[in-house]
Design a protein that fits this description.
The protein is an all-alpha fold. The chain has three helices and no strands. It has one domain. Helix 1 packs across helix 2 and helix 1 runs parallel beside helix 3.
Length: 90
């Protein structure tokens, strides 16, 4: 088998590994966001869950839980949480 014959398989394996890594990063970010939100509500997980499910006009009238689908949206959500923590509510 020549090197060119094995290359597509190697590329596919690399792509699968990249996708797995991205899923791991998203999973870690989701966990971090949850901790930040629970901290925002001083440990009250029920209140934090309630907050996550309600549409927020400043987030484009989207519920925070619906923003956990991409790193970009998670970054936007974390920025919003940090603004609340600092008293800078847009």
């Amino acid at each position: 088998m020549s090197e060119s014959d094995s290359k597509p398989t190697d590329d596919l394996a690399g792509t699968a590994g990249l996708a797995d890594n991205q899923e791991l990063v998203l999973s870690e970010l989701k966990g971090l966001v949850w901790l930040e939100i629970v901290e925002l509500f001083e440990g009250d997980e029920a209140e934090a869950r309630n907050w996550m499910t309600r549409n927020r006009p400043v987030l484009g009238n989207v519920a925070p839980e619906d923003m956990l689908d991409s790193r970009e949206n998670i970054d936007r959500l974390r920025c919003f949480i940090q603004q609340i923590q600092r008293g800078i509510i847009p």
